[in-house]
Design goal:
Length: 362
């Protein structure tokens, strides 16, 4: 049984690693790892006998790299010339690694990058191969760039079917392969692109999706936080319906599913215009326990005043039996709940701008 908790916090100026016991009341942190490098993605891969940590960092001098550690961050290894590099014939160059996620097969790891591309590794993140059919998709030339750039920030492998992967890009929308990457189809039916002219707001592609999640025990049900809207799909992304009723705002970045309850989800609503901070400047995580039919605000222990955004990968859950929920703000503070969001306490403060938070029981 796992008796420790590991928390990775990636920022605009390095990575911090926190450890605690199962109670998750007291934390010890090391860092910065990769000092002054941007860390937009990290993964705690608990498959196998030894957990592997993966970090997607970007140095202004040396460019992007996927680092790996098999001793919980005590030492790090890199792949010569970078783990992710575009083939010469593409004429493209990786700017950032926005996503690292474990696949459903042993050793498989997926990455999402800027510019918008998805990559697959079969050696636990040491080297990656471009998903070429998605890169060559005829829609790609018309994909836009969100405020943070054009990037695949969601890669969601099917938990039991290794040939099926769902990915999302800002601003291009949702794409899915069910044939092992041989072909990819847009899956945006019902998702509104509110920034387009009236009458053209439900296009085949071009939506600014912020994040997608699902529970492995119910893979056909998926949840999405869009640029404007929160959605659910009950048919593996073929169609989407709004579940935003009851929320104070339908804009936000992260959406997280409970590790043991497939219909329990968490979001962090923000004002969509006039300042990307919580409505009325009041911190609050919102939870639904019925797939988005109803929502409740969870704020016990959070600050009354909070004019801070929480980014798409800066919120997560661990996998303890009583799940912990975490979020990091752009003010450098990370908040955690050891009781599934019922109460909150500050885990660490005064870090740089938080981009990604990942946690696991080890």
């Amino acid at each position: 049984m796992a008796d420790r908790t590991l928390l990775m916090v990636g920022t605009r100026k390095g990575l911090w690693i926190g450890t605690s016991d199962e109670a998750r009341a007291d934390w010890e942190f090391t860092g910065p790892h990769f000092d002054m490098e941007e860390v937009y993605s990290c993964l705690i891969d608990t498959r196998g006998d030894t957990p592997r940590l993966l970090v997607g960092s970007s140095s202004s001098w040396l460019g992007p790299q996927v680092w790996r550690s098999d001793d919980l961050g005590a030492s790090w290894q890199e792949t010569p010339n970078g783990a992710i590099r575009f083939p010469d014939d593409t004429g493209a160059k990786v700017e950032r690694v926005w996503q690292l996620v474990a696949g459903s097969e042993d050793g498989v790891v997926y990455a999402g990058t800027e510019p918008g591309a998805v990559w697959r590794s079969t050696d636990r993140g040491e080297t990656f191969t471009l998903e070429r059919a998605l890169w060559d998709h005829p829609h790609r030339q018309e994909w836009g760039a969100g405020f943070g750039g054009q990037a695949f920030h969601t890669v969601l492998p099917h938990p039991t079917d290794p040939r099926s992967v769902t990915a999302a890009i800002s601003s291009g929308g949702v794409y899915q392969t069910n044939d092992g990457g041989e072909s990819w189809e847009a899956h945006n039916h019902g998702v509104k692109a509110e920034f387009l002219p009236e009458g053209a707001q439900y296009p085949e592609f071009g939506q600014c999706v912020h994040k997608i999640t699902r529970h492995p025990s119910r893979p056909e049900r998926m949840f999405m936080q869009n640029h404007g809207g929160v959605y659910r799909s009950d048919d593996h992304g073929a169609t989407w319906v709004s579940i935003a009723d009851g929320l104070p705002a339908d804009f936000g970045f992260p959406i997280v599913v409970h590790p043991h309850e497939p219909d329990t989800i968490y979001v962090f609503p923000l004002n969509g215009s006039g300042g990307r901070y919580p409505p009325d400047g009041e911190a609050g995580v919102w939870r639904s326990r019925n797939g988005g039919d109803t929502w409740e605000r969870l704020a016990q222990g959070l600050p009354d005043t909070f004019y801070v955004a929480v980014m798409r990968d800066a919120m997560c859950a661990d996998d303890h039996q009583r799940a912990g929920i975490y979020f990091g703000g752009r003010n450098g503070a990370v908040w955690g709940s050891a009781d599934e969001g019922e109460s909150w306490s500050q885990v660490v403060a005064d870090l740089p701008d938080v981009m990604v938070v990942r946690a696991a029981a080890i």
